[in-house]
Amino acid sequence: MDFTFTEEQQAAVEAAKAVFADVAPDGVPSPALTPGAVAEDFDRPLWAKLAASDLLSLVLAEEHGGAGLDAIALCLVLREAAKVLARVPLLEHCATAMAVQAHGSPELAAALLPGAGRGTLVLTAAAHGRSGHDPAELAVTARREGARWTLDGVQTAVPWAHGADWIAVPAHTGEGEAVLALVPRTAEGLTLAGQVSTSGERLAELALDGVRVPASHLIDAPGAWERLRQLLATGTCALALGLGTGVLTMTSQYTSKREQFGFPVATFQAVAVQAADRYIDLRAMEVTLWQAAWRLDAATGGAGGPLPSAGDVAVAKIWASEGVRRVVQTAQHLHGGFGADTDYPLHRYHAWAKQLELQLGPAAAHEEALGDLLAAHALA
Predict the structure, then answer these.
(1) How much is the average pLDDT of 77-91?
(2) Three-state SS across 40-100?
(3) Rounded to two decimals, what is the model's pTM?
(4) Could you give the CA distance from residue 76 to residue 74 in angstroms, rounded to a whole number?
(5) Which residues are bridge partners to 290 per DSSP?
(6) What gap in Å lies between CA 93 and CA 122, rounded to an integer?
(7) What tens digit of pLDDT does each residue of 190-207 get?
(8) Nearest-CA neighbor of 260 among 159, 336, 351?
(9) Which parts of the chain are beta strand (E)?
(10) Number of CB atoms found within 10 A of residue 314's CB
(11) φ and ψ at 156, to 5 degrees?
(12) pLDDT 10s digits, 244-266
């Protein structure tokens, strides 16, 4: 087996590193010192750099102006973005574009994908349902009325919605079918109420009251929403890995310089053991992430496995949810009081890690889902 990344994937990483090299994690006010959102919009200048470097079109096919790369390449770029807490809707934008490309009508693809690749059109997705606990597709109903569909319902904690142009909204038809509607932010009957994430970013509660969309803007292909949901979850695991990697690097640098009793604290056994445990967490997060991303790509190509790809995604979420929490908690402990200093960026990473942990959900829930899959699919 060859576990190395392809030349194209490695080139995407190098391009991402170049774009994110000058990004400051503390470029906006601290969430600990800001009563509301840290900023009204995402980082538009950084977004323009991503577009100029062809990273927004990375996963689009050549006919849409893209490079035709896969979920693994997207996760590699997301990992680099999280190391510097890049404030851009890269995951939601690219994942939604992939869903439109794979399952959308030619009319919808032609309307959205060229602009999405150039960065002139921003996409996001509503994936948390009404409460963040129930399946997102159950929060919105979709009724067909002639050549149009009517949407009613509420989705909470929609990321970057205030700055997006189009929002992917999962819904149900009342017949047990999950569909995915692409709705312009300015659609009549759509309203956004302000919410703030744990990391201080601006979210939105999205309310749909009789919002009408043409049939060409609704994706009813079997598995389309499930594929997008899994891609969003896997991308969140990539963000957790990048954040954890950045935090462990900060911790290594700090403990190597901080001296106690005339020696760097990194040389103390108790410190070294804790750091080593967190390194093991990161390696486990990494291997389960690439397994999940590979399975998503393999499933698209028709390759199967003993379990559905949802099983691999569940394992990645288990490690990412618990691993990123343990990494930042250990970092705070090894930094001492300095970790809580709002002039030092570690507290920002802690807030982002907690937000990612909340998005991923508790490991126990994913373990239960994995158990159900194992019970339903006998392994040879």
Answers:
(1) 98
(2) CCCCHHHHHHHHHCCCCCCCCCHHHCCCCCCHHHHHHHHHHHHHCCCCCCHHHHHHHHHHH
(3) 0.96
(4) 5
(5) none
(6) 6
(7) 999 999 999 999 999 999
(8) 336
(9) 123-125, 140-145, 148-159, 166-172, 178-184, 190-196, 202-214, 218-219, 259-260, 263-264
(10) 25
(11) -105, 160
(12) 999 999 999 999 998 888 899 99
